[in-house]
Amino acid sequence: MIPAAFDYVAPTTVEDALAALAQYGDEAKIIAGGQSLLPVLRMRLNAPEWIIDLGRIESLRGVRDDGDAIVIGAMTPHVVVGSDPLVAEHASLVAKAVEHLADAQVRHRGTFGGALAHADPAGDLGAPALALGAEFVIAGSGGTRTVAADDFFVDLFETAIGEDEILTEVRIPKRTGWGATYEKFVRVAHQWPIVAVAATVRVEGQAGDRVFAEARIGLTNMGSTPLRARAVEDALVGQPVTDDAVRTAAALAADGTNPPSDLNGDADYRRHLATVLTRRAVLDAAGA
Ligand SMILES: Cc1cc2nc3c(=O)[nH]c(=O)nc-3n(C[C@H](O)[C@H](O)[C@H](O)COP(=O)(O)OP(=O)(O)OC[C@H]3O[C@@H](n4cnc5c(N)ncnc54)[C@H](O)[C@@H]3O)c2cc1C
User: Fold this and answer.
1) Which of 118, 138, 147, 195 for mutating ligand 1's site (highest number of atoms within 8 Å of CB)?
2) Which of 121, 137, 219, 283 is most buried, judged by most C-beta within 10 A?
3) What's the CA gap between 180 and 280, in Å, rounded?
């Protein structure tokens, strides 16, 4: 279907984009890569009178080093994030997740910030961002504020970004030297995950005597928002890197989750998947 008619503006600064948002209010919608918004418009699930395109704001693109964190601009396309050396070195969990995200066409158009702002519970970037303790920098007419990942994902397709605000960048604390794996379960290639697990771990000790020093694990599509598998994280710390220890901890992966039931699988099936994928992800992240 063809979207309803709209007017279009493409500002070149965040300030001008915020001014346009303030001017057009409820009648405006931001577009980033358009990979989620355009289908919505084409299905006429939304019919904004104004589209504010962030694509010409250069300051929103790119990855930079900021001391103890790396910073990813909201308009950075997935393909750039996935091949960036800073991301690979300090937040390899993000790079691993991007490898599994959609197909090459979507990865070239879709953006890091757009995917997180869209907050689809099956989106592949929420769980890594949560597991890594990302911070979301949000600009509004009153200035800029920073929201922790724990507070950013509010509900299904709902984040802490206000109607009159723009996500400008995401700060990810460096976890240099940590192992990372994104285990995504799909029926066919390039599908959205039925369930996925984002695991990153820091292991100490020598071969044959290695233990989990730290573990951070995020779950995709196990509730209306990305979730941390905190029971697994707590159970892993101090344990040896062995199949038995990881299996015992991973059995807790579905604790506190509320997975959906749909044609791809019911809630119990997803709970089972979460334990299996967590075991695989943690062992792989630990290099076991
Ligand atoms: C065929 C297909 C398959 C896909 N498969 C997957 C998949 O397997 N895994 C996955 O994770 N994703 C998948 N996606 C979605 C993809 O990741 C999109 O890139 C993402 O969901 C939206 O990013 P975007 O830049 O295109 O945002 P847009 O579609 O432009 O915007 C999405 C929403 O976020 C808002 N928004 C965008 N940027 C900002 C901002 N800076 N500040 C405030 N609000 C903002 C918009 O107003 C809109 O409501 C798929 C998409 C398609 C079309």
Assistant:
1) 118
2) 219
3) 11
